[in-house]
Design the sequence.
């Protein structure tokens, strides 16, 4: 199978503020991420990890440089298309949960499907499926706020997978959790990567978590200073032998 | 996102901060309550005045006298009022205080004025009836009556029916107060005969007219004190009243009533044309206009109060929604990150504003209608302020009024909501997610 970059990033810059207050958070990032990979973006606090992830996830626009998704320049896509991509192809797990804490677990998980206009029964059925995967189907009716931190993060994972995404972006998914709970979350995420071929992009400052990914992108001061591969991984980006290739998803962006 | 989901969410969001939403709705409630209440009273008063106008000849009714008479009447009033007007000279050809008859020539020209229905022109005669009585009582009562004006006249009747103006028998419609005085009830007086008696001032000879009662007049302002007769009864009583008059005076006409086509011609047009031939016309609005103006002024003041309340409520909506946009910054960020479009975010906040407006106006209208009906019932009860006017509902709620007030308030709410909704729609998902 030939290499096909899912995300192709060239000379990416992102700066915040203007003139005197101008701050360059990213200064020239070149990066290819392949379908079915698990990639860790690792670096110190303030190094620009989240900024990079937000750009990759099409949540924000770069100051300069290009991001191609499945070969298509994303700067040329309309907002409507961007919304649709985030809604249908991406899953998000954020650092501090980001849930509507007064709502039920079920309603939180349903959110992406509600936004895309899936009917009530169908979205309920799929939410229960997703909750079963994270083993929280018995908590569906509970208020999100009443869950423990680990349970909340599992709800977020259920929300991230409900739309059968091609890519999951996870920003410090275990940052707020104790190591045992963190491990459980990691298992879930890597299980999704292996069984369903979902591309995994994890932002972390935790070397142990990064070590579990096939590839690690080290960034400091808005630049990549090192790329490394997991020991058992050959590092040529060819995924043969890692998992069943039939499961790998392709994103096809049809022309507007 | 489905529109039904957005509507559900908008209502759910209102319930999230119940007290705040309630206070905002309360402000809208005050505005909608005063506007719908004043509209209802206006509709009630207009209904009443319209029914009065109808009983006096309808919108096309014109009372016509000669210009000299009109000036003379004004002059008389003026000379009593400020004393600066010169007194009116005595003229032996004119029998009433300065009143000039309408000449035959003017009458011919009147018939030819475009817009005036020549067939409707009827001489207005003052009938001099000495008393009214019936077979059910020994008592005799003073009474004033006149021929019903021409045109699409509909007298507001409690029981019975309209007069047949061209009937060959004597017909009369009586006010309610005569019914019991003559020993009947509203129901059983219909089709009974009452006696109208004219007593000759010199010979004391009595002439009795047996008139059939066809209807009982609902009490009102305009028709107050008048009984209506058909043409034959009026003509014969007038004949009796004027039997000693010299012929040239007997045939003189001082006032006529006529109908004009008010849908095609403006009142001012017709009045100008009358002026050209030396006549002067008055519509029913001229006659009762002051009552209406009085009510209109009061109600306009109340309506302005209502609008001011609504403006305050609109500011309340803006404030409430800005607070809720602020509170839900992270939520909006999440929605947008997960692919919700800016226009849907805008729509969801707009719908929240519209929902505030909707509930405010629904409560305002409901409470107003409940109170309005209580007031109507209380006023019509025995001893009530409107006991004498059973057909007059002070508060009348019409469907168009209810719909237009609701729509007006929802539009105001929507417009107030656009500011906060725009702020929400323009939120950047990243900034919103970073927001603590
Ligand atoms: N909206 C913004 N305006 C100004 N500066 C910003 C903004 N967002 C991020 N930055 C700056 O950009 C730099 C990178 O931020 P970023 O959030 O990407 O760091 P990070 O690597 O994710 O750190 P952490 O591990 O603490 O989450 C930081 O110095 C931050 O102060
Ligand atoms: Mg970060």
Sequence:
């Amino acid at each position: 199978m030939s290499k096909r970059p899912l995300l192709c990033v060239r000379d990416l810059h992102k700066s915040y503020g203007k003139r005197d207050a101008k701050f360059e958070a990213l200064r020239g990032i070149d990066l290819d991420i392949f379908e079915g990979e698990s990639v860790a973006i690792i670096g110190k606090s303030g190094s620009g990890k989240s900024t990079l992830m937000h750009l990759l996830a099409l949540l924000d626009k770069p100051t300069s440089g290009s991001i191609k998704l499945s070969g298509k320049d994303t700067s040329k896509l309309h907002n409507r298309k961007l919304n649709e991509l985030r809604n249908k192809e991406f899953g998000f797990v954020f650092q501090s949960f980001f849930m509507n804490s007064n709502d039920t677990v079920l309603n939180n998980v349903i959110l992406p499907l509600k936004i895309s206009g899936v009917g009530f029964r169908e979205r309920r059925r799929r939410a229960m499926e997703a909750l079963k995967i994270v083993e929280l189907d018995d908590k569906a009716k509970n208020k999100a706020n009443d869950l423990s931190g680990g349970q909340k993060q599992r709800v977020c994972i259920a929300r991230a997978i409900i739309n059968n995404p091609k890519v999951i972006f996870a920003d410090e998914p275990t940052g707020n959790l104790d190591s045992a709970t963190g491990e459980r979350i990691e298992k879930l995420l890597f299980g999704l990567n292996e069984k369903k071929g979902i591309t995994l992009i994890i932002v972390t400052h935790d070397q142990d978590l990064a070590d579990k990914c096939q590839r690690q992108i080290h960034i400091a001061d808005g630049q990549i200073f090192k790329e490394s591969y997991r020991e058992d991984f050959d590092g040529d980006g060819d995924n043969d032998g890692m998992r069943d290739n039939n499961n790998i998803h392709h994103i096809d962006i049809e022309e507007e | 996102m489905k529109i039904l989901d957005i509507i559900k969410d908008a209502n759910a969001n209102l319930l999230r901060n119940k007290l705040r939403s309630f206070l905002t709705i309360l402000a809208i409630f005050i505005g909608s309550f005063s506007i719908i209440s004043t509209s209802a009273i206006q509709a009630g008063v207009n209904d009443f005045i319209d029914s009065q106008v109808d009983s006096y000849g309808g919108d096309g009714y014109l009372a016509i006298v000669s210009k000299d008479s009109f000036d003379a009447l004004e002059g008389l009033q003026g000379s009593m009022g400020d004393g600066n007007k010169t007194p009116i000279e005595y003229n032996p050809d004119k029998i009433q205080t300065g009143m000039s008859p309408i000449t035959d020539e003017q009458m011919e020209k009147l018939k030819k004025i475009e817009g005036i229905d020549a067939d409707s022109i009827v001489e207005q005669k003052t009938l001099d009836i000495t008393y009214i009585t019936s077979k059910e009582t020994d008592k005799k009562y003073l009474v004033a009556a006149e021929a019903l004006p021409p045109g699409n006249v509909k007298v507001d009747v409690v029981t019975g029916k309209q007069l047949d103006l061209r009937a060959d028998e004597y017909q009369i419609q009586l006010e309610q107060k005569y019914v019991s005085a003559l020993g009947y009830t509203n129901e059983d007086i219909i089709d009974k005969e009452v006696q109208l008696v004219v007593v000759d001032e010199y010979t004391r000879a009595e002439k009795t007219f047996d008139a059939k009662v066809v209807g009982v007049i609902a009490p009102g302002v305009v028709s107050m004190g008048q009984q209506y007769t058909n043409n034959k009864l009026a003509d014969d009583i007038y004949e009796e009243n004027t039997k000693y008059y010299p012929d040239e005076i007997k045939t003189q006409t001082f006032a006529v009533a006529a109908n004009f086509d008010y849908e095609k011609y403006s009142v001012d047009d017709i009045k100008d044309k009358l002026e050209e031939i030396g006549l002067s016309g008055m519509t029913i609005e001229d006659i009762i206009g002051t009552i209406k103006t009085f009510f209109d002024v009061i109600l306009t003041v109340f309506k302005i109060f209502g609008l001011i309340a609504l403006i305050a409520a609109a500011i309340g909506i803006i404030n409430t929604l800005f607070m809720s946009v602020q509170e839900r910054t992270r939520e909006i960020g999440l929605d947008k990150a997960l692919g919700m479009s800016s226009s849907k975010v805008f729509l969801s906040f707009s719908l929240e504003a519209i929902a505030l407006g909707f509930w405010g106006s629904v409560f305002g209208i409901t409470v107003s209608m409940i109170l309005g009906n209580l007031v109507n019932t209380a006023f019509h009860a025995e001893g009530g302020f409107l006991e004498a006017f059973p057909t007059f509902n002070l508060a009348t709620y019409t469907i168009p009024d209810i719909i237009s007030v609701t729509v007006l308030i929802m539009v105001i709410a929507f417009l107030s909501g656009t500011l906060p909704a725009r702020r929400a729609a323009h939120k950047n998902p990243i900034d919103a997610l970073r927001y603590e």
